[in-house]
Amino acid sequence: MRRQLNLIEYALQTLLRRWKKNMALLLIYMLAAAFFSSIVFLTKSLLQESKTMLRDAPEVWVQKISGGRIEPIPLSISDSLKKIRGVQAVYPRIWGSYYDAPSNAIFTITALNKRLPRLLNQSLKETEAICGSGYIETHAIKPGERFLLLDSNSEMYGFTLKAFFHSETDILTRDLIVLHPRAARQILGIPENRAMDLAVRITNNSESANIAAKISRMIPGLRVSTRDQLQRTYDYLFSWKGGLFLFGALIPLLAFLILAWERASGISADEQRELGILKGVGWQVEDILWLRFWEAFSLSVTATLLGLLTGFIHIFYFDAAFLKPLFIGWSGLYPSYHLVPSFSGTAVLIVFIISTVPYLTAAVIPAWRGAVTDPAEAMQNN
Prior knowledge:
Shape: elongated
Number of domains: 2
Order of helices and strands: HHEEEHEEEEHEEHEHEEHEHHHHHHH
Distance between the termini: 34 Å
Largest sheet: 6 strands, mixed
């Protein structure tokens, strides 16, 4: 143990003596580790955020599809759904997309109901609305001011902004416009006897897949979705995008490993003389290999830790400024939400494996050539 501590101390002294040479490599190494950690942290945070978003979503919802598009579903279907054993409640949902020509953005209009969890705790008149930050910013309106919306027949209706959603809920509400149910139906063109979909609450969440299958068999032609299916879709989507970025990083990673290999295998005259002296005073091949290992280990761990810190700051303090637009979708009205720190020991371990193992391999293996060189030959070459 004492021997290894001495080797570690000498390795650190060697790195400090050549600090200018190692600084450039440390910087490149840190940037590579920061890139990998940013992808891992962002993917983990988005997966956790998706679970939070879906926590209050209905266990099952039913939609009518015509020509590959969603169309309003008759409310009479809810009577049949309520008869299924295990169904606690069925309620209609009024929502739809709204193209806003002045801002050239697409917003989501939804009808106020008691099942908008943790977002609303107030009532609305038919001429009042609650808007997300996206509409507030693009139209520069304040609570108490009026704005206009066009219905499906291009007729204008005026609404008073009663309140707005705070930025903490931007991931859910940035593009949202909440109206009274009758006003929402008017703007979206949904008849009184229809809804955009039917949300089904299940007594036992573990039975949601079975109840969804029963609905599909009972009323063919409907699209029946479950909360678990949507969660798996989010998991697949964000994991796929994260994996795609990591795969795309293989080329710069390979270039970095080539740089590390060339640096490790290209022993300078000073390093050759140092190895010759060490072997001349009794160092064994094993000692030199351990020395190179501890040098590479110290450098890689330092660069990885700095990379993890840089990636953490980039994702959770600068809201993934470079990566978020590539993850969150196609809309021109990007949510400016703040990512909540969410990572695990597994995520950190993945970054360490990707970052340190290839470099240690690239640094230690070429060191064998210098370790087996005869000390007299090493001294003569200098």
